[in-house]
Fold this protein.
Amino acid sequence: MSTEKRYIHKKICVCRSCKGTGKIVIFEKYDILKRNPKLLTCTQCGGTGRVVVQGETTISVEPFNPERDG
């Protein structure tokens, strides 16, 4: 069995939550026709529309055993 760590280096990306606008549009639950939108500052990016992404993953590889895995 072998294990490998992979790193995602820091990079600036567009915020997926607000699609880069910095604002999120919400409607009150009683506003069925959606006539009164409320603009809120995106909590994910803090209103900038951009986020810094980084991370790491661990990948493990082991042989297939038909008796155990199949």
Remarks:
- Residues 66-69 form the longest helix (4 residues).
- The chain has a mean pLDDT of 92.
- Strands lie at 2-14, 23-26, 38-41, 50-61.
